């Protein structure tokens, strides 16, 4: 697929998706949504990709939905949509659910302002690193709409219901330091170091871990957020460790450790996932 609103590149087993509308502070569009979905699918299907980084071109990460249509921006009917209130699916949510379903870890390199869908799309990412000057806001109530991109599920799980409620109900914009204090981002760095830090983290994963181990672990942790009992985790842990314990990657992981050499894991997420994967029903 050819891309216009994003850029997609793979280097050293790391895929970098760059939101690329710098003249509009990378504001989100229907085209950007389609291109993000395609790029995420491409990364997940490519066994040479171990980690995905998402960042923005220029001084912003994403300023939210493009408001160029004026007051009718969020009016699906006014834009000729044939959807009804029951059939409509918000585009930010399609991106969030796609990220949630991936076998590959996703790192958000928030290089500048991230507002509206610009921040909610990052919530299903595994790690978020923010620039010191980044401004963040769940501004939906100030625009007369509601939080989207499945953020009502993700945000309270990341920062707790009290902090999530304050940010969402006020719609105020806050800084990266506040986001870090609440646990929304893992680190705050100078803007010119954010992508580099994300790449260093991605390299640590890509160079030292089994792709299949990480794929299973990623879904175990995310899916267990909704489990009713730790026994649910125990049952899946047991299946997973039984499957991986007999695998070539487990033999290689132990052997490389004992032989004091870098591991050479060979299993592929495209073909070597356990027979019980996926174990959930969406």
Give an account of the 3D structure.
This protein has helices spanning 30-45, 91-101, 117-120, 151-159, 161-170, 176-181, 194-208, 211-224, 230-245, 248-258; strands spanning 6-11, 14-19, 51-56, 106-110, 114-115, 127-131, 135-137, 173-175, 187-189. By secondary structure, it is α/β, with parallel strands linked by helices. It folds into 2 domains: 6-205, 2-enoyl-CoA Hydratase, Chain A, domain 1; 209-282, Orthogonal Bundle (Lyase 2-enoyl-coa Hydratase, Chain  A, domain 2). Helix 1 links the parallel strand 2 and strand 3. Helix 4 (151-159) crosses helix 5 (161-170). The longest helix has 16 residues, at 30-45.
Provide the β-strand percentage band.
5-15%
Distance between the termini: 27 Å
Secondary-structure arrangement, i.e. CATH architecture of the largest domain: Alpha-Beta Complex
In CATH, the homologous superfamily of the largest domain goes by the name 2-enoyl-CoA Hydratase, Chain A, domain 1
Q: Structural class of the helix and strand makeup?
A: alpha/beta
- The unreliable regions are none
CATH class of the largest domain: Alpha Beta
Please state the average pLDDT score.
95
Q: Could you estimate the helical fraction of the residues in percent? A: 25-40%
Give, in spatial order, the strands making up the sheet with the most strands.
Answer: 1-2-3-4-6-9
Q: Strand-and-helix sequence, N→C?
A: EEHEHEEHEEHHEHEHHHH
How many domain regions? 2
């Amino acid at each position: 697929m050819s891309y216009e609103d994003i850029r997609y590149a793979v280097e050293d087993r790391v895929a970098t998706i760059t939101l690329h509308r710098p003249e509009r502070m990378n504001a989100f569009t229907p085209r950007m949504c389609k291109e993000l979905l395609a790029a995420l699918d491409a990364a997940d299907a490519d066994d040479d990709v171990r980690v995905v980084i998402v960042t923005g071109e220029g001084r912003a990460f994403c300023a939210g939905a493009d408001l160029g249509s004026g007051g009718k921006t969020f009016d699906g009917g006014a834009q000729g949509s044939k959807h009804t209130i029951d059939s409509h699916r918000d585009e930010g949510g399609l991106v969030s659910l796609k990220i949630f379903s991936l076998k590959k870890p996703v790192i958000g390199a928030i290089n500048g302002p991230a507002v509206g869908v610009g921040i909610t799309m990052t919530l299903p990412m595994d790690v978020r690193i923010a620039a010191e000057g980044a401004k963040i806001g769940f501004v939906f109530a100030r625009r007369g709409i509601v939080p989207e991109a499945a953020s009502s599920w993700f945000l309270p799980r990341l920062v707790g219901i009290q902090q999530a409620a304050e940010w969402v109900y006020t719609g105020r914009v806050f800084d990266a330091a506040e986001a870090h204090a609440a646990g929304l981002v893992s680190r705050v760095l100078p803007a010119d170091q954010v992508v580099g830090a994300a790449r260093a983290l991605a390299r640590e994963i890509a160079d030292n871990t089994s792709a299949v181990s990480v794929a299973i672990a990623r879904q175990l942790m995310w899916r267990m957020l909704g489990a009713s009992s730790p026994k649910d985790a125990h049952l899946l842990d047991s299946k997973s460790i039984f499957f991986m314990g007999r695998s070539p990657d487990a033999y290689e992981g132990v052997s490389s450790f004992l032989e004091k050499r870098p591991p050479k894991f060979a299993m592929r997420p495209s073909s070597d996932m356990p027979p019980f994967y996926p174990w959930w029903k969406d």
